[in-house]
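Practice record 12: protein with pyridoxal-5'-phosphate.
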Amino acid sequence: MTFTTKRAFNFNAGPSALPLEVLQKAQAELVDFQGTGMSVMELSHRSATFEAVHNEAIARLRKLFEIPENYEVLFLQGGASLQFTMIPMNFLQEGKKASYIQTGAWSEKAFKEAKFFGTPVEAASTKENNYKNIPAIENINIDPEAAYVHLTSNNTIFGTQWKTFPTTGDIPLIADMSSDILSKKVDVSNFSMIYAGAQKNLGPSGVTVVIARKDLLEKANTNIPTMLQYATHVKNNSLYNTPPTFGIYMLGEVLKWVEEQGGLDVIEKRNEEKAAYIYDVIDNSNGFYYGHATEDSRSLMNITFRVADEELEKKFLAEAKEAGFVGLNGHRSVGGCRASAYNSVPVEACKALADFMVKFQQDNQ
Ligand SMILES: *Cc1c(COP(=O)(O)O)cnc(C)c1O
């Protein structure tokens, strides 16, 4: 990869890095999109030109993520956070229960919203352990009467990630995949619904992807405000009102980029390689650095770690910033350091960070 312009080593947790090639293409097309004499942002969302962009993005996502026919793909707004609300609003009735698997701050927020509509119950929680790990499948207690089970596939703040998912039989499984969607292959048919804010792995903020099985959607409450009904967006191909057109265009371009990289197998291997550079430095540092997550639960997307000495940690973050590494401060609720190595973060950036960490240890031990 050639960096013709100054590009930061961007480890931001979200919004986060986008592929340089995508940004350059968007730049080239910005003032005259496909001979229309206007940018994508200036097109009518009812125009054939935009509809093609919209439908191509849906088709690309279906193909790349191998989404079966009996699932709808929606582009919504309000972020993953509005899904925390829409899910119970549509699928949980007063007096009914839903099982939530608590693996971090985002899971907690989802749980909190469900209380407005019904009774969320904890199927498992690793809070006592400061969310260092994903619960063992055998320790998950799903309420047999639950309307659905909710989990967070990758815990952006704590740096843990599910390696295998529970199977929930007839009870719909719903996953917040905001921070690891499209980072690897997933068996979509194991889930009744998958949702993700775009700004980590899929594109800029503003679009929220919802992938939902038709039989779940059929059970949705229709006695709620129009914009908050999944049915409204299904019926209108996510064009009920003005969608975030530029975001959808960018999402489509990111998906094209993933295709050009060789698809999810290549992306997955690359993500493993990228994370390994950094985890290897942590593991070989004799305790100079230590990870937050237990080894079996480590995320390939968000690498959370500490420098054992607190003063040195401050120095590490300051010098890393100086050296051009952006976004390495841990989330304010956890502290420490976090490197987010989403799909668009190049191998070179992870390698450079690993080298920097080794050098910093040598200089400060
Ligand atoms: C970032 C994030 C969210 C919040 O997404 P918004 O689009 O900002 O609402 C929710 N869940 C997870 C796992 C996240 O990483």
